[in-house]
Amino acid sequence: MVNGLTHFDEKGASRMVDVGDKHVTKRVAVAHAKVKMKPETLTAILDKEISKGDVLEVARVAGIMGAKQTSTLIPMCHTLNLTAVKIDYTNNGIDCVELFSEVQTYGKTGVEMEALTASSICALTIYDMCKSIDRNIVISEVHLLKKSGGKSGDFTFIKEG
Fold it and tell me: Annotated catalytic residue: which of 9, 21, 95, 128?
């Protein structure tokens, strides 16, 4: 370990952290993303008028698939047996969709990266499906909201300022 960084050995070489001796616990993580768009784009999404299909349902499936592929996308992530992935939406009725991904497993390492990947892929899919009518879509506020389980315990995001 170099300077407390667990993904490097004492010589500075990259490595995947050994979680073999850790205890299996229930692990849950919830992540968030915000997708801001023109008001007419949100109306078209909610009225299911986007030519590529039902944007929120396609994005939900993409987010679930993204969570399942996290270890192939992020080099040092462990392959996990996910027990649940859920994506929910809210909107402000004007110009914004917020999405929340919840990922669960029983394992030796957490699912924060899987939840963040699910939220990111879901948001990117919304952009992809709507870019033909709105190229000013902004994806923001991708972050971990909370996590539970494991040695480090629980975490809840606290918005500063």
Answer: 128
